[in-house]
C-alpha cells in the first residue's frame, strides 16, 4: 500500500538532508583527525581510561574545559544527524538513544583505530569516551523534543479521523419469500 501526501515527501527530504549532512560531517571529522601532523615528538598512546581526563582536571577546571570540550563537541552533531538520517518518527526514546550512542561510540573507536596508522596522530581511549558522551548529550538535548514536535505537526496536518455518520437500519423486507408485497 502506497502512502501519499506531503508528510511522506517531507520525511523523505528530511532523511536525504540528514544523510547528506551526516556524510559531510564525517568527512570534516575525518579530515581534522586523520591528517598527518609534523611534530618534533609524539607522546605515548593513552590506553588507560580516564587518564588524560584526570590529568587535564588536575591542571584546573578552566584548563580542562578548554582542552576537553573540543573532543566532546567534535562528534556531538552525530547525536542529531544519525537519527535524522534514519528518519524514524515513532520510536522508543530509549531505543533511539541506545542506537545513536552505540553508533557514535563505534565511529569514535574507528577514528581512534585509524589514527594508529597516521604519522603524528596519537590514539587516546579518552577521546572515544568524550566523543561518545558528546553524542549522548546532543541526542538527549535535541532529538526527543524535535520528534515530539514533528509528531504533533503531522497529526495536525492529517486532521481528525474522518467520522462516518451512523446509517439507520434499512426497511425490513422479506428476502426469503418468493412473493413481493408492497404495502
Automatic annotation (TrEMBL):
Question: In its keyword annotation, does this UniProt entry include Transmembrane?
Answer: yes
Question: Pfam families this protein is in?
Answer: VanZ
Q: Which UniProt keywords apply?
A: Membrane, Transmembrane, Transmembrane helix
PANTHER family recorded: INTEGRAL MEMBRANE PROTEIN, MEMBRANE PROTEIN-RELATED
Q: Give the protein's recorded name.
A: VanZ-like domain-containing protein
Keyword Zinc among UniProt keywords: no
Q: Which residues form the VanZ-like domain?
A: 23-141
State the taxonomy lineage: Bacteria, Bacillati, Actinomycetota, Actinomycetes, Kitasatosporales
Residues forming coiled coils? none
Q: Which organism is it from?
A: Streptomyces gilvosporeus
| InterPro entries per record | Teicoplanin_resist-assoc (IPR053150), VanZ-like (IPR006976)
Can you tell me where the transmembrane regions are? 12-34, 72-91, 103-122, 128-148
Amino acid at each position: 500500500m502506497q502512502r501519499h501526501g506531503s508528510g511522506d515527501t517531507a520525511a523523505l527530504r528530511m532523511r536525504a538532508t540528514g544523510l547528506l549532512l551526516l556524510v559531510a560531517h564525517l568527512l570534516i571529522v575525518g579530515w581534522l583527525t586523520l591528517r598527518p601532523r609534523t611534530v618534533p615528538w609524539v607522546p605515548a598512546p593513552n590506553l588507560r581510561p580516564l587518564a588524560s581526563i584526570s590529568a587535564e582536571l588536575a591542571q584546573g577546571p578552566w584548563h580542562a574545559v578548554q582542552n576537553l570540550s573540543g573532543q566532546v563537541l567534535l562528534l556531538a552533531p552525530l547525536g542529531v544527524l544519525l537519527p535524522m538520517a534514519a528518519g524514524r518518527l515513532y520510536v522508543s526514546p530509549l531505543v533511539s538513544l541506545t542506537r545513536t550512542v552505540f553508533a557514535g561510540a563505534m565511529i569514535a573507536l574507528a577514528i581512534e583505530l585509524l589514527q594508529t596508522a597516521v604519522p603524528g596522530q596519537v590514539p587516546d581511549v579518552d577521546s572515544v569516551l568524550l566523543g561518545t558522551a558528546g553524542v549522548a548529550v546532543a541526542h538527549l538535548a535535541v532529538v526527543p523534543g524535535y520528534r515530539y514536535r514533528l509528531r504533533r505537526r503531522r497529526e495536525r496536518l492529517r486532521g481528525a479521523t474522518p467520522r462516518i455518520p451512523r446509517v439507520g437500519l434499512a426497511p425490513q423486507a422479506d428476502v426469503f419469500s418468493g412473493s413481493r408485497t408492497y404495502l
